[in-house]
Amino acid sequence: MNYYSLNHKAPNTTFKDAVIKGLAPDKGLYFPETITPLPKSFFDNIDDLSYTEIAFEAIKQFVSPDIPKAVLKTIVEETLSFDFPIVKLNDNISTLELFHGPTMAFKDVGARFMARCLGYFNKDNTNEITVLVATSGDTGGAVANGFLGVKGVNVVILYPSGKVSDIQEMQLTTLGQNIKALEVDGVFDDCQDMVKRAFLDEELTSKMQLTSANSINVARWLPQLLYFIFAYKQLHKTHKEIVFSVPSGNFGNVCAGMMAQQLGLPIKHFIASNNENNVVTQYLKTEDYNPKPSVQTISNAMDVGNPSNFIRIREIYKNNFNTLKNNLSSYSFSDAETKVALKEIHDKYNYVADPHGAVGYLGSKAYLENNPNAHCVFLETAHPTKFLDVVEDVIKEKQPLPEQIQSVMGKTKEATKISSYDGLKSFLLK
Ligand SMILES: *Cc1c(COP(=O)(O)O)cnc(C)c1O
Predict the structure, then answer these.
(1) Does residue 120 sit within a domain?
(2) What percentage of the chain reaches a pLDDT higher than 70?
(3) Scanning 50, 168, 427, 428, which has its CA 20 to 30 A from the CA of 231?
């Protein structure tokens, strides 16, 4: 598969090159040249296929011929070595738990897949790479864990000081080896701006191969389409109108779901559930796209003022506003509403959600008001104990810590403080 830049001013390129570059030379996001739907028999016979068989079939067109089939099989098996269960709350609402990976966030899937692709491309030690990543919380931990020990890949993670949860901070600052954390005096957008500036800095890029592990990288973004198919496999016998409510920040996850739909997965509709960072909710109302600075919320992984993947969503629907609107609804909720939802999910359904999942639950409820026959699946994008303070404060119940979380507690934090782009640059050059 070849990829083109959505800025249309750079040459088309291979999967391998797109993964290594991250962003195209014209600063556009890469997008696959073609999307070939899977045969109908694939969906008809889905009950007979294992998750790794499904994943292999669904992803192979996007990575071949750069990743040979036998290697892809191993990558897929290793990446997906945990569960993706559906938990039913009532006849109209389920949740898809995406937090059973090593850092308990859905980003484990993309990060593990991408790390293994880069590891394969660097198998002869010919492509030393620095992965530069800005995180508002979960990306950093998932990338750190996914890339730990991958030869020839150095990972530098920028996170906003004091604006990620304690557990998230431990997950990205305690691993050592090829993983370095930079604690930025600023907000997430500052981190993201520094990363973008580094990619434009010719002095840096002439000295090192920089790439990104945010969802702009096709190897992080595309494997996320797989668990939408896993959800379908679990639900298709009992529910016909499947709708996904995706708690959204940079819109990589919901955009991956739309790629699954392009592959032929029978999905009725998508809901982008937002906190008060609601550029897309406003856009669907007004057709006016107005990025703005992010505001801080209790669902901090979605505190994004200018969602980087929205341009891919427009591409999928050929920049047609009405086609987009027919496939995507979006709602925005305040922190106060999110807390009420956390409590409601707990009291009514005896289920503990995290603040991001709770926003997804609210999106499902809003959509169901006018679409009572739908079955809404909200994505539980992180384990509730990653947001322990908020969750325990709202549901008034102590939460047991899962093993993945316990194992990072009490380790020693190692991070370098920086407050400007110059700090980042001198760190990278030394
Ligand atoms: C990253 C993240 C999101 C947002 O996902 P996008 O792909 O950026 O839209 C939502 N919830 C959690 C817990 C996250 O870590």
Answers:
(1) no
(2) 100
(3) 168
